[in-house]
Amino acid sequence: MTPVKLYPPKSEKVYFFGTCLVDMFYPEAGLDGIRLLEREGIEVLFPEDQTCCGQPAYTSGYQSEARAVAAAQLKLFPEPWPIIVPSGSCGGMMRTHYSQLFAGTDQESLAGEVASRVYELTEYLVHVCHLQLDDRGRAETVAMHTSCSARREMGLAETGPMLLARLGQVKLVEQERAAECCGFGGTFAVRHPEVSAAMVEDKVQAIEATGASHFVSSDCGCLMNINGRFEHQKKAIQGEHIASYLWRRTS
Amino acid sequence: MTVETYTPRAFHRQAHDALGNPQIRSNFRRAMDGLMTKRRDVFSDWDLETLRELGANIRLRALARLPDLLEQLEANCEANGIRVHWAEDGEEACRIIRELCESHGAKSVIKGKSMVSEEMHLNAHLEAAGIEALESDLGEYLVQLNEQTPSHIIMPAIHLNTDEISDIMHDKTGTDRTRDVDYMTAAARAQLRERFMNADVGVSGVNFAVAETGTLCLVENEGNGRMTTTVPPVHIAVTGIEKVVEHLRDVPPLYALLTRSATGQHVTTYFNMISGPRKAGEHDGPREVHLVLVDSGRSRIYQDDELLDTLRCIRCGACMNHCPVYTRVGGHSYGTTYPGPIGSILMPHMLGLEETKDLPTASSLCGACGEVCPVKIPIPDLLVRLRREAVGEGRGNVHGAGVKRTKKEVAAWKTWQWLATHPSAWRGSLTMAGKLRALTPSKLGPWTQYRTAPKLAKRSLHALVKSHRREGEGES
């Protein structure tokens, strides 16, 4: 039985953990996420010393390096505020893998405590903020790609679509095999480029087949992979982070 | 007979070949889509999670008492008249089976479906000793005719389509070239029936070995298992030591999970429970039944409380059916007896990481395998654990631990670690990278073969947040 997750009331302050991919490649998505939270009257704290959750090394097997990097993040959230992450993948890493990563170390209980405060952005917007959206954009059709980590590690396949459904002018269309991986998988895309390419090729075809003019995702890894493939094929369609999409249409 | 050989060392080449073969691509895509749909539909009326929980607990309970249960199984089998043999590895198991065959002067062995026998290359071993070993599962029969190994653990010939099967049967057995599936099935049935009648020994696998009763359970759809275990005068069952369950009542939930997860069936056409040889006054059944229990690295996995979870597997193949990598590259690409996600966590124990180091990385960790596993094996976590073993960061419990650790990779991760633990250097490098973004190479090796390189942002989130804060202060 999937446990029912109980959500706390809206917090007056939250921490924002931007993730390294957002920091480097999609900073606007991070800022838009912060703006969405601020518009809800929440004070957003952005610990300046944040870098990376440690996932790349963790999934590559480099446990000690991953632990060192993750440990540096654990110190950044001393107050009991929620930690909002605009990525299912990094959110999943922090919420579900930190306990394994720090098992048997001095930081085990701190890691567990931090993990218990981690929320993916769309999850927090839906379940805690009960975000209402005033759509000011034109009517359009949009497809959503939910990352595997948001879907399976965090159990959040619904929160993105729930937010999009609150945009009056947006029609959400489902892609074929929506639950199938886009082929990013962090270092997987580099270690097994051909297999990954076959996966992303099917994904771009599925997204195109929906006829949607836009697609959104809450994960920058998937976006980088899918957009990179679309661009390589010189297709006009480009995806954007759901935070940017929501902000753009409602501000 | 030379069987087409695939090796896990050549995963990249084999995957490349499969990806470039449109026939393979479409055969697997179609077959896996069908199996995924069937599984989803058959579970819709079940409380799947409760059943999975039950299945996982049954397997965990059995594994927790594995040594005891194996002794109990042996005692109860012997009491039922089943002779029990223990094999340290595949080679020893092959020798035991060959010697049993030789002691009966057997020249011909008919085989029911058994992945353990594939794992230990029993056919080649028997044939080298002048004993013919014929597969009687239709899929296994076809791949054997085609001089291949199975590409899936439940549907060994899933990589072949009707046309290819028609060609194989025509070329090897002289049947008509036709797409008529009924005709081909009938032809194969006639060919196999004759072999069942003339075989000296029948070899089968085991799905569940029940310790409390000494019963061997065999799940199948075609009757080959029943024929194999009843027609020849001698039946030899062969199984990995992990297949034991504690009680008879443990079998129905596992059986329900197995058939639904594998082929979307509520029940299979046949479910055999073998409890001993022919008894006095009975008209049929083998005069001798043997059970060969094979270790082959399993007790080594058993020593490790994480890796132990691998042994829960009930061989349904659902992880393969749902794996986006398996679906694209097919079972042969892995070059191992057990392909796909379960193979990637099982084979390193059997062959060592020297041979299999690419397999644990051949997954995007999308989690589909873990999500569908009927006994809740945390496959993605175990893949990561084996990646740790491969780079020497595990507990060293897997043969070949550390084989994938290279100076270059270690240096790269150390550099990354340094940057990510020195925030001002991290921010500085982001600022620098943003300024030099025009110089970002547009070719990033394999990545840009199929994708355009991602572009670094002009200003990092760190920088944007800073400006945002300043703006906010300006407003107030």
SSE layout and pairing:
The complex is a heterodimer of chains A (about 250) and B (about 475).
Chain A: E1 13-16, H1 20-24, H2 27-39, E2 43-45, H3 55-60, H4 63-74, E3 83-85, H5 88-101, H6 108-115, E4 118-120, H7 121-127, E5 140-145, H8 148-153, H9 159-165, E6 170-173, H10 188-191, H11 193-209, E7 214-217, H12 220-232, E8 239-241, H13 242-250
Parallel strand pairs in A: 1-2, 1-3, 3-4, 5-6, 5-7, 7-8
Chain B: H1 11-19, H2 22-43, H3 48-64, H4 66-80, E1 82-87, H5 90-103, E2 108-111, H6 115-119, H7 122-128, E3 132-135, H8 138-145, H9 162-173, H10 181-198, E4 201-204, E5 208-210, E6 215-220, H11 224-230, E7 234-240, E8 244-245, H12 251-263, E9 270-274, E10 288-294, H13 298-302, H14 318-322, H15 324-329, H16 340-351, H17 353-356, H18 368-372, H19 379-390, H20 407-420, H21 423-435, H22 447-450, H23 461-475
Helix pairs in contact in B: 2-12, 16-19
Protein name (chain B): Lactate utilization protein B
GO biological process, one term (chain B): lactate metabolic process
InterPro entries (chain B): 4Fe4S_Fe-S-bd, 4Fe4S_Fe_S_CS, FTHF_cligase-like_sf, Helical_ferredxn, LUD_dom, LutB/LldF, LutB_C, NagB/RpiA_transferase-like
Q: Between the first and last Cα atoms of chain B, what is the distance in angstroms?
A: 84 Å
Main sheet strand line-up of chain B: 1-10-7-4-2-3
Distance between the termini of chain A: 40 Å
Number of strands of chain A: 8
Question: What number is the mean pLDDT of chain B?
Answer: 95
User: What are the low-pLDDT stretches of chain A, counting only 5+ consecutive residues below 50?
Assistant: none
**What proportion strand of chain A?**
5-15%
Spell the H/E element sequence of chain A: EHHEHHEHHEHEHHEHHEHEH
